[in-house]
Design brief:
Number of strands of chain B: 14
Distance between the termini of chain A: 31 Å
Largest sheet of chain B: 7 strands, mixed
Order of helices and strands of chain A: HHHEHHEHEEEEEHEHEH
Helix content of chain A: 25-40%
Number of helices of chain B: 12
Largest sheet of chain A: 5 strands, parallel
Shape of chain B: globular
Order of helices and strands of chain B: EHEHHEHEHEHEHEEEEHEEHEHEHH
Helix content of chain B: 25-40%
Distance between the termini of chain B: 36 Å
Number of strands of chain A: 9
Structural class of chain B: alpha/beta
Strand order of the largest sheet of chain B: 3-2-4-5-7-6-12
Number of helices of chain A: 9
Strand content of chain A: 5-15%
Oligomer: heterodimer
């Protein structure tokens, strides 16, 4: 995998399906973890690791590798399951997730296992780290790219915008940010767009608690492209579960335009599992054993 | 080894020392948050512009960028004032540096009450407590500019997180060129048998003066330079407790969480003896740095007084 292999959409679809299965199994077996925001970025990571990035699971410290920095450090089920598909982690080890003695902690730990670029779990820190790696690449005249996955919550942290401003200032053309824009965060909905009857939502400026207990309009991020553009970034917005759309955007972003690029991926939190889709409850809650059976069946697995 | 010859701010040696080390082949980079003239980081930027990254007044980003650079093999220095870093960026230091043990070195100037006229908001008195709370950070507070150069070199040549605390005012140079900073060692600057004065930063000189004063009263005071707060010299500390039976700490920082806390924790567990504390216990204010040392009693007189008191509390 030292060069991007020619992989078909059908193959990526199968990889994504297996990754989803492992996300659900990993969180269910330990009854904790973050399935919702893992399921929303499955296609993004599959495209990166199997179609776009230059990397070698046999040599995770390869200086010329493309780097993937996951700022949303809670989406470990997704990252570990994808790294397992890519050959960094034995699949059987995935079921030690979050257990005492496991390498696979609840949030990412740098180099543990090798292939994890950065320790995360407090939001807002990834883009700074990614920028540092991008600046080092330019200084060392290496041609790698640095990809950084951000959540809605990441885009509310001030540090992300400190880093955005600095990346624009330093014209970090080898830095590519990807926003997993699923419109849902810990307490509920970032904005009005993803809950039922969102169009009829009362026009209130602040957040409020809905009858079902979720908070709505926690912090609106729009207009998101304008924010990034104002800091000197090239922007794109694509359908975040569409391999062709993600691929085209990443290929365009790799061209050095003398400025960093951001791809805002419109995604669905909990994607692929009916009762998790657009449901804030599953930001940080695992499926039960019965729900796992149902979810796997919806993904087309018979167990 | 100890003499007083001229004065120089510890912050003045930062940039020039980085230049020297980079010329010697160390893969040094420096991230700067708009205080490069004050920390002397610009001296490095003038010499190695491609290795100097201005990121504006954004200390959280400064630490993250430094960690990213370090992850690619760089010896990543960054600098600011201690109230801003670690003040603004404790979580970034914890997540991006301390836990993964990235090769990041934070040089923080304008620490302590001696920052002076800028007043309480500018006087970091908590930074050692913050940095010592993270067990993977090496924490250094040099006594003068000569030692500061050695501390910077030790940080550059040893892998992992380092914090170096530096000061704004030009303080007396107390070490000659033969002095060698040793990580984890508390050099004995004066022999003594009745009490041990343990000081860091600019109060090392005050401790030496206090020892001289005590000698005039027939009290024999040992003086240790505790510039290396982590790793610290447990052997020298326990030997001092055992051999002199009383200790005094002196620091321009809050006693709790600083050198005083460190010494108390250690001797309480290993060899309890009376300890006296000279340091800050409330927030500072504006004034010249010499006035502030007097006003807050960070003086040879205060150290000598604490020594007499500790000796009087010796049992048996």
């Amino acid at each position: 995998m030292t060069q991007a292999a020619a992989v078909t959409n059908e193959e990526l679809t199968e990889i994504a399906r297996r990754v989803r299965r492992n996300i659900l199994r990993m969180t269910q077996q330990v009854n904790s973890g973050h399935p919702g925001g893992s399921l929303s970025a499955v296609e993004i990571l599959a495209t990166l690791y199997f179609r776009i990035m230059r990397h070698d699971p046999q040599n995770p410290a390869w200086p010329d590798r493309d780097r993937f920095v996951m700022s949303k450090g809670h989406a470990t089920p997704l990252l570990y399951a994808t790294l397992s598909e890519a050959g960094y982690i034995p699949e059987e080890e995935l079921m030690t997730f979050r257990r005492l003695g496991s390498r696979l902690q609840g949030h990412t730990v740098m180099n543990n296992p090798p292939g994890i670029e950065m320790s995360a779990g407090a939001l807002g820190m990834g883009l700074s780290f990614a920028l540092g790696a991008a600046l080092a690449g330019r200084l060392d005249k290496r041609d790698y790219h640095v990809y950084c996955l951000l959540s809605d919550g990441d885009c509310q942290e001030g540090q992300t915008w400190e880093a955005a401003m600095a990346a624009g200032h330093h014209a970090a053309g080898n830095l590519i940010a990807i926003v997993d824009r699923n419109h849902i965060q810990n307490d509920g909905y970032s904005d009005y767009q993803r809950f039922e009857d969102g169009d009829q939502a009362p026009d209130r400026p602040g957040g409020w608690v809905m009858p079902d207990g979720h908070t709505a309009n926690i912090m609106n991020l729009e207009p998101l492209e304008d924010k990034w553009e104002a800091f000197g970034w090239a922007t794109m917005r694509v359908k975040g579960h569409d391999f062709d759309a993600i691929t085209s955007a990443l290929e365009a972003a790799r061209e050095d335009m003398g400025q960093p690029s951001v791809i805002i991926c419109e995604t669905t939190k909990g994607k692929g599992v009916s009762f998790m889709e657009n449901n804030p409850d599953y930001h940080g809650k695992a499926p039960s054993a019965e729900q796992l059976v149902q979810a796997l069946s919806e993904l087309g697995f018979e167990e | 080894m100890v003499q007083v010859s001229g004065e120089k701010a510890t912050r003045e040696v930062f940039g020039p020392t980085l230049v020297k080390l980079c010329r010697e082949g160390l893969d040094i980079v420096c991230v700067d948050a708009d205080l490069g003239y004050s920390t002397s980081a610009v001296k490095f930027g003038q010499e190695f512009p491609e290795r100097f990254f201005a990121i504006g007044v954004a200390e959280q980003n400064m630490i993250g960028v430094a960690a990213g650079l370090a992850s690619c093999g760089k010896v990543a220095f960054c600098s600011s004032f201690a109230v801003f870093a670690p003040g603004h960026c404790f979580d970034q230091l914890r997540m991006a540096v301390a836990q993964p043990k990235t090769n990041v070195k934070l040089f923080a100037s304008h620490a302590g009450v001696v920052t002076g006229e800028d007043g309480a908001s500018a006087e970091a008195l908590e930074d050692l407590a913050l940095m010592l709370s993270m067990p993977t950070f090496n924490v250094l507070f040099p006594a003068d500019a000569v030692e500061c150069e050695g501390a910077i070199e030790a940080a550059a040549r040893n892998d992992g997180p380092f914090y170096i605390r530096a000061l704004r005012p030009k303080t007396p140079i107390i070490f000659d060129e033969s002095y060698r900073f040793e990580l984890g060692k508390w050099p004995q600057l004066r022999e003594g048998s009745d009490v041990t004065l343990i000081a860091c930063g600019e109060l090392v000189k005050a401790a030496l003066e206090a020892a001289e004063k005590l000698a005039g009263e027939g009290v024999s005071a040992r003086v240790l330079n505790a510039s290396s707060l982590r790793p610290f010299d447990k052997d020298a500390l326990i030997a001092a407790a055992r051999e002199t039976g009383a200790l005094v700490t002196a620091e321009d920082h809050f006693i709790h969480g600083g050198l005083g806390g460190l010494v108390a924790e250690t001797v309480a567990a290993e060899h309890p003896v009376p300890v006296g504390y000279v340091g800050m216990e409330r927030y500072g204010t504006s004034g010249t740095w010499e006035q502030l040392l007097d006003y807050f009693e960070l003086t040879p007189e205060a150290i000598a007084r604490a020594a007499r008191d500790a000796i009087a509390r010796k049992s048996g």
